[in-house]
């Protein structure tokens, strides 16, 4: 693995020199990033964007894409506002004329962006964070992919985690959108199948100042733990704070949307100690280890929520464009499947110059990424990895993969 890392770093240095010597080209390629820079995941979005930007910077430092430079433009898709997501996607597709999109991040925003702009425009879209099961059945002309696993799987893993920790009677509240409902349905079914009891399963709307009515209904169920499937910078934080203030619950759990550096400082350390949450993570491979070092050197948090998945989405798009041989949109989804899947010579994070040379020779490649393999199924889904985290002190600390 050390040898592989040295090769990656050597390629980065050599490629940087080449990029600095090369003149600007008229055949630059533009891709877009859509993320929730405002709204209920605003603290999660910047690290993901930085992971995407790291991939783009590596491409440009190691010879560029096709005969030019890979340019990255960004837009605010918010998270809960699907109208804003549609507008941002329309600008990317029809005004910026991007070749492909990374994001949006939230499921409802992703579905809205895909249906209103990406699919009609024939634009490949890879979300690193949209986890709703609804994406699996989207009529997308093979244009919508994701590098994070579906909540149909995360719901099973969260249920398994809670049962292993001794939870036997839970109440669930979920944000009333594609993400929340799909996750809640999966968790409730899996928890019951594993011998637990779901005393209440209550939807709530994001953006309210007062959730005491919903909390009262949940507390009245007699459940010993409240599972919040929402967003740490939105309804999830408010619900937990008000549940603590009212003395309604003392044990909490959540999904990936709740894992943020802002949650514990905002609510308080003492009442959240031991809170369990799951999120998509990375398999432990040579690619993961190399990415961790490259990301740390660039000041990017390598294990941040959806950061490796964001990096992989951008690197895969770049590989697909290079494979496709032009900056156009047609044929890009098939090129993506080609570069992401075996057989082929393995390409690890940061190995752009190696991949570029192999593709120029007509060789097959197989990208093994920062968050694991991306053998996309017919629906553009990947199996992925789910990890358990627990609040210790002021932060969520990773415990390990849920097996």
Automatic annotation (TrEMBL):
<keyword id="KW-0813">Transport</keyword>
<dbReference type="Pfam" id="PF13458">
    <property type="entry name" value="Peripla_BP_6"/>
</dbReference>
<protein>
    <submittedName>
        <fullName>ABC transporter substrate-binding protein</fullName>
    </submittedName>
</protein>
<comment type="similarity">
    <text>Belongs to the leucine-binding protein family.</text>
</comment>
<dbReference type="InterPro" id="IPR028082">
    <property type="entry name" value="Peripla_BP_I"/>
</dbReference>
<dbReference type="InterPro" id="IPR051010">
    <property type="entry name" value="BCAA_transport"/>
</dbReference>
<keyword id="KW-0029">Amino-acid transport</keyword>
<dbReference type="InterPro" id="IPR000709">
    <property type="entry name" value="Leu_Ile_Val-bd"/>
</dbReference>
<feature type="signal peptide">
    <location>
        <begin position="1"/>
        <end position="26"/>
    </location>
</feature>
<feature type="domain" description="Leucine-binding protein">
    <location>
        <begin position="29"/>
        <end position="340"/>
    </location>
</feature>
<keyword id="KW-0732">Signal</keyword>
<dbReference type="InterPro" id="IPR028081">
    <property type="entry name" value="Leu-bd"/>
</dbReference>
<dbReference type="GO" id="GO:0006865">
    <property type="term" value="P:amino acid transport"/>
</dbReference>
């Amino acid at each position: 693995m050390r040898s592989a890392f040295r090769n990656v770093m050597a390629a980065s240095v050599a490629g940087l020199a080449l990029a600095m010597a090369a003149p600007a080209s008229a055949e630059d390629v533009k891709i877009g990033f859509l993320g929730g820079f405002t709204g209920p995941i605003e603290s999660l979005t910047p690290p993901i964007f930085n992971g995407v930007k790291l991939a783009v910077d590596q491409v440009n430092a190691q010879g560029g894409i096709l005969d030019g430079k890979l340019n990255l433009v960004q837009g605010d898709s918010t998270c809960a506002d699907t109208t804003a997501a549609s507008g941002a996607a329309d600008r990317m597709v029809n005004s910026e004329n991007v070749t492909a999109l990374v994001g949006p991040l939230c499921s409802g925003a992703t579905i809205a962006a895909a249906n209103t702009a990406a699919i009609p425009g024939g634009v490949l879209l890879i979300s690193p964070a949209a986890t709703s099961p609804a994406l699996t059945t989207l009529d997308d002309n093979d244009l919508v992919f994701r590098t994070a696993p579906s909540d149909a799987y995360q719901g099973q893993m969260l249920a398994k985690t809670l049962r292993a920790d001794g939870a036997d009677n839970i109440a669930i509240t979920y944000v009333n959108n594609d993400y929340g409902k799909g996750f809640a349905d999966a968790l409730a079914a899996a928890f019951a199948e594993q011998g637990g009891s779901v005393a209440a399963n209550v939807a709530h709307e994001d953006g309210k100042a007062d959730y005491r009515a919903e909390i009262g209904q949940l507390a009245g169920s007699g459940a010993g733990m409240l599972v919040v499937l929402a967003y740490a910078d939105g309804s999830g934080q408010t619900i937990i704070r008000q549940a603590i203030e009212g003395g309604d619950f003392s044990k909490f759990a959540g999904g990936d949307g709740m894992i943020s550096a802002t949650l514990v400082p905002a609510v308080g350390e003492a009442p959240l100690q031991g809170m369990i949450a799951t999120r998509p993570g990375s398999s432990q491979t040579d690619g993961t280890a190399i990415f961790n070092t490259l990301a740390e050197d660039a000041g990017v948090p390598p294990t941040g929520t959806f950061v490796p998945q964001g990096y992989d989405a951008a690197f895969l798009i770049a590989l697909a464009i290079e494979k496709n041989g032009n900056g156009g949109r047609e044929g890009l989804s098939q090129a993506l499947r080609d570069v992401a899947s075996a057989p082929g010579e393995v390409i690890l994070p940061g190995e752009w110059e190696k991949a570029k040379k192999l593709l120029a020779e007509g060789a097959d490649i197989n990208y093994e990424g920062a968050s694991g393999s991306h053998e996309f199924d017919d629906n553009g889904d990947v199996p992925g990895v789910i990890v358990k985290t627990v609040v210790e002190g002021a932060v969520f600390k990773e415990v390990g993969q849920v097996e």
